[in-house]
UniProtKB/TrEMBL annotation:
Enzyme Commission identifier(s): 2.7.7.65
Pfam families: GGDEF
Name the UniProt record assigns to this protein: diguanylate cyclase
Keyword terms of this UniProt record: Signal
Biased composition annotated in UniProt, kind: Low complexity: 74-85
Length: 378
């Protein structure tokens, strides 16, 4: 028996009555007759049961957790919801009669369920209607899929950016390639124009031979090279005989044709190492490297004879066209001085004119050379 003043010291429900305790009958009730046992007392409240002041909203997570483990059958889904039951617990998922409701986990041993309920409540106030139906993806599935969707979106964005960059680079590469081809073509045109201008600057436009300045430059280079080895260099200076009369009798164009004919004949007898230039007017120069004076004089006479033989056969005919040639040599004894060599060859030419034209005159370094009238140089 519990003393009468004991319940006043304890809060109701905080301390369960000891086992075997039977509640005190209300005042005025009669004690049960012998042999009659009162109904058993309700089970004591669990220690961690939500306090009486907890709202229905706070208890909702527990209700949802109870509904999740076992989905309702189609019959249960078709059963209308009992309004009374809704009033009792608006967040409880209705179930059909006869369908056993999933067992509510023991409150005192369900801390994980309580945590899950808290997390779902924080997600936006779940209600019984938010619970996934059979066949639907659970919100947890969507939540677990969004990182993959985000990664896929990032991958697509990266591919799009890379694709645009690749197309831009391809366009720029094509543009650069086109500009490179244009530059290469322009460079080739400039190279050809430069070569043409250089060709014009060093050659005589009428006959194509080296002009006076170019011949002099080439002669000095060749002379410097041969002087290092002590090899001879021969110079031929020749002039067309009575050329003025050809111009006067046959015309200036016939005079040009006579100049070209002579140049062509000379070319037929030269080698690539020889130099051929036009001194001016009807005078020309030939430089032959590494030959004896006699051999070079023989070459000069061969050219003379060819002009004399071919001129009458030319069209228009150039009868009486002959050459006078003077030959001199630069060697270790005579020295390698271009102007001195030219003076001796020019004196030999003057001597050939003086002796009657259409001939070859040679002047070696030991010969007494009568200088040509007037002072000429390369
Ligand atoms: N057709 C033509 N004539 C030229 C050219 N250059 C110079 N002449 C002429 O060539 C002639 C040269 O004559 P000269 O050097 O005085 O003497 P030449 O008549 O050859 O007589 P010799 O030299 O004494 O045999 C001049 O009448 C010039 O007008 C040219 O490019 N074309």
């Amino acid at each position: 028996q519990v003393p009468a003043d004991a319940p006043a010291m304890q809060a109701p429900g905080q301390h369960p009555p000891p086992p075997g305790h039977r509640p005190r009958p209300p005042p005025g009730d009669h004690p049960p007759p012998p042999g009659h046992f009162p109904p058993p007392p309700p089970p004591p409240p669990p220690p961690r049961f939500p306090p009486p002041e907890a709202t229905a909203h706070e208890a909702t997570p527990i209700t949802v957790i109870r509904a999740l483990p076992e989905p309702a059958t189609p019959a249960a889904m078709a059963t209308p919801v009992d309004p009374a039951a809704s009033h009792a617990d608006p967040f409880e998922i209705p179930h059909a009669p006869g369908v056993s409701s999933p067992a509510l986990p023991a409150v005192g041993s369900a801390p994980l369920a309580a945590d899950a309920a808290v997390s779902m409540s924080a997600g936006g106030g779940n209600t019984a209607t938010d619970a996934p139906l059979p066949g639907e993806d659970a919100p947890h599935g969507l939540l677990s899929a969004w990182p993959w969707l985000a990664a896929l979106s990032l991958a697509l964005l990266a591919w799009w950016v890379a694709s645009r960059r690749s197309h831009r680079l391809a366009r720029e590469t094509e543009q650069l390639s086109r500009q490179q081809r244009q530059l290469r073509s322009a460079h080739e045109q400039l190279r050809q124009q430069s070569a043409h201008l250089r060709n014009l600057s060093i050659h005589d436009p009428l006959t194509g031979t080296l002009n006076r300045q170019a011949f002099a430059s080439e002669l000095r280079e060749l002379m410097d090279h041969l002087s290092r080895f002590g090899r001879p260099l021969n110079l031929i200076v020749f002039d067309l005989d009575h050329f003025k009369s050809i111009n006067d009798q046959c015309g200036h164009l016939a005079g040009d044709a006579a100049l070209k004919l002579v140049v062509g004949i000379v070319r037929e007898h030269l080698v690539s190492a020889d130099l051929f230039g036009r001194f001016g007017g009807d005078e020309f120069l030939i430089a032959c490297a590494d030959q004896s004076l006699e051999s070079c004089a023989q070459l000069a006479d061969t050219v003379r004879a060819a002009v004399e033989r071919k001129a009458p056969l030319h069209t228009p005919a150039l009868p009486g066209l002959t050459l006078s040639l003077g030959v001199a040599q630069a060697n270790p004894e005579a020295g390698y001085l271009p102007d001195e060599l030219f003076s001796r060859a020019d004196a030999a030419l003057y001597e050939a004119k003086r002796q009657g034209r259409n001939r070859v005159v040679t002047r070696d370094a030991t010969a007494v050379v009568e200088p040509a009238p007037g002072h000429r140089h390369l």
